[in-house]
Each structure stands twice: as structure tokens, then as C-alpha cells.
Amino acid sequence: MLDSSTIGNLLKGRRVLVTGAARGLGYDFAMSLCQAGAQVAMADILADTLEQSVETLRAKGYPVHGVVVDLADPESVRQCAAQAVQRLGGLDGLVNNAAITNSGGVGAQELEVAVWDRVMAVNVRGTWLMSAACQPALQASGRGAIVNIASDTALWGAPKLLAYAASKGAVIAMTRSLAREFGAGNITVNAIAPGLTLVEATEYVPEARHRLYHDQRAIQRDQVPEDVSGSVLFALSDLARFVTGQLLPVNGGFVFN
């Protein structure tokens, strides 16, 4: 958790939708946004976990909203965007955080086509569809910002993680294209590429991979969600109003951009 005295009212009054917000990085993003004064809609496919997370933040005094979404279903994506806009009264920011891996530890020859297609449907197509669905509301706000959560696996070529790394490489390329397209509507679009972060989703990662990241970072320690949240807040804030189409690796110096 970031220190609320540090982030203050950086995003006071901003209305932000965060996907994949039921747990892990997405949950920390949602909480940090609330601490910075934003109104937040939390979206996830994990309905029960999402409900618990929403209740937890509401107990802390944050009036967050929960929206169930399946990013692989175009209609579900459209409904999620519409519900977020309706509940928040508009939209100033979108954090495309939700993603799946499904291919960890499997080599290119063993990777199943169905797994590849599912990863691409959620991570790539879902990011595109959510961005497109939210674009009108973001443009109407006059200060719209999209933050796409990529991964440094796409930058250093993580082995036996082909579908995930490829999907995150596509997210980086998509960020640049969307920045060109949405810029006319005063919408910024940037990507953040975290390194291996200690969250529920990385518990499956072999210990050797954790040690590799730890030992090869310029800052040699484990990465935690709070290490990433500050960059997300920056990219959504007025401090970054003239920053768009950019990629920011946040990994303690494991990969330099």
C-alpha cells in the first residue's frame, strides 16, 4: 500500500475503471486510486472474489463499484464499460490490467492452440475491446487516460511463456497505435511493464525464476504491488498529460528500456 500522505489528492474526482481488480496488482491499483481521491469501478471475472474485495474497500470508506466482466466476450466487455460509466457518472481513466497466463512452463512445441487463442482473446483482444468501448466516455471527459499493463517478459524474452509474452508484446504495440488514434480526443495511452511481482498469480512461478529476477535486478529485492501502483497513478494524473504512447518498465532494473 502506498503512503496516502505521498499521493494525497493526486486524482481527486477522477473516475477510473480497473480490470482484473479482484486481487493481485489490480486490487492494489484500485486501492491506491481510492487513496489518491479517485472514484473506482473494479471489474473482474472472479465474481465472488470481486464481491469480497469491493466489500473490503467499502469497509475502509471507499465507495467503489464492482462489475463482473469476461474479457473474452465482446458483449460482456461492452456491458462492463457501460455499467462503469453509468455508476461513476462518466470516465476519466481506464487501467487495462486483467490478463491470464495459462502457458507457464510449456515449451513452444507443447503449447496448445486453444491455450494460445484463449490468452490472446483475453490479453490482447480484451484490451482492444475495452479501450474502444471506453473511448467515447474518456474523450467526453476532456482528460482521458488509458494505462495498459504489459509485462517485462515481452522485453527480455522469458522462455516457456510464449503465449503470455507474445500477448504482452502485442499490448505494447497496441498502446502506441491507440495513442496515435486517440490523441485527437485528448486521451493519453501508455503502457507499464512490471517485472515479476509477489501476488497470487505468480505463486506458480518456479523458485529459480524468482531468484533470477531478485539477483539480476539493479535493486536486489522482491517486487511488490506498491512498486507498480505509483507509476499507474502518475500515468493517470495531470502530471502525465503530455506523455503518451510510451512504455515504462517497472522492475527494479531487471530490464532497461
Automatic annotation (TrEMBL):
Residues 14-195 form the Ketoreductase domain. It comes from Pigmentiphaga humi. This is Pyridoxal 4-dehydrogenase. InterPro entries: KR_dom, NAD(P)-bd_dom_sf, Sc_DH/Rdtase_CS, SDR_fam. The lineage of its organism: Bacteria, Pseudomonadati, Pseudomonadota, Betaproteobacteria, Burkholderiales. It is an enzyme of class 1 (oxidoreductase). Gene3D superfamilies: NAD(P)-binding Rossmann-like Domain (3.40.50.720). Its EC number is 1.1.1.107. The keyword Cytoplasm does not apply. The gene is pldh-t. One of its GO terms (molecular function) is pyridoxal 4-dehydrogenase activity. It holds the Pfam family adh_short_C2. Keywords: NAD, Oxidoreductase. The keyword tRNA processing does not apply. Belongs to the short-chain dehydrogenases/reductases (SDR) family.
